[in-house]
Amino acid sequence: MGKKNLFSIVIAFLIALIFVGYRGILFLILEYIASKVSFISVNILNFFTTYFIIKFLSFIIPFLFGIALLRESIHDFFSNVKGEKVKITTIILYAVLDSLFSFSFVFILINLIPSSSSGYGDLYEMKSFWEALVMTGIFGPITEEIIYRGIIFRGLRGRYKQGTALIISALIFAIFHGSPAQIINSFFAGIILGFVFVKTGSLIIPISMHCINNIVFTFLDYISIFFPHYGPVIINFTYEIPVWIHIIISSLSIVLLLIVINNTGKTKAVS
Questions:
Q1: Which of the two ends of the chain, N or C, has the fewest CB atoms closer than 10 A to its terminal CB?
Q2: Tell me: the pLDDT tens digits for 15-46?
Q3: Do the domain assignments include residue 54?
Q4: Could you tell me the residue range of the domain that residue 96 belongs to?
């Protein structure tokens, strides 16, 4: 591996390390600064507003840094990831199959790694469902896809073969996702989302898939609040589904998803 190629991986990793959600270095720095600012401490801004501002800043700074490395303007960046149009029904089909695969695959993993968490059934740090829905179901996927697929993958693609860039970017994406089960699941999610991006040239489609997947899991996280009598029963039931059923569901959904993706027009090279 040449020095330039190794350097590109290090830069990609650093962008992710600086950016990635509440684990990101920049987010922690901004959060510390916010805690020291008097007007925030007297609650002129509520928790959610403060959190959103910090999240936005921790995204926009590495985003601007990333497109500078790609030598693109903001306009050029979004033009280059616009891609071809895909029917809404096709996007929904992508998202449904992707969510089915993710849901079943993560339960296979926690059966193989018993001490690992699925990341489902535990409430998010947000104080309400709507705050979690906005941050986890909408804002998070949009910013992550822009950073990981739009910047990191495209940057690595200029140094490596497309398949290699896809694997490296998915690995970086996965590293910053919690427990071993979540890391492995996120790696495959990164491969799928990257493959969709490669096939269509459009960042809108992986963003939509990522949003729908996270919204589904956000609802599952809050199901006990919406349905206090039936929520725990539903959660327990999902954990009691035999692993062989999860294997069948995940296998069928990923095969169908890959077939649908592969048949979505002819491959369009990502610029």
A1: N
A2: 777 776 555 677 777 767 766 664 444 454 56
A3: yes
A4: 3-262
Helix H or strand E encompassing 158: none
- Specify the length of the chain in residues: 271
CA distance 42 to 20: 28
Q: Report CA-CA distances (Å) from 166 to 76, 132, 172, 223.
A: 22, 29, 10, 34
169 within 8 A of 194, measured Cβ to Cβ: yes
- Is 223 among the domain residues? yes
125 is written with which tokens?
């740090």
Encode pLDDT of 48-68 as tens digits.
677 777 778 778 877 888 888
Q: What is the identity of the amino acid at 267?
A: T
Judged by phi (left if over 0) then psi (alpha if -120 to 50, else beta), residue 121 lies in left
Assigned domain for 267 exists: no
Domain count for the chain: 1
CA distance 148 to 169: 7
- Assess if residue 10 is contained within a domain: yes
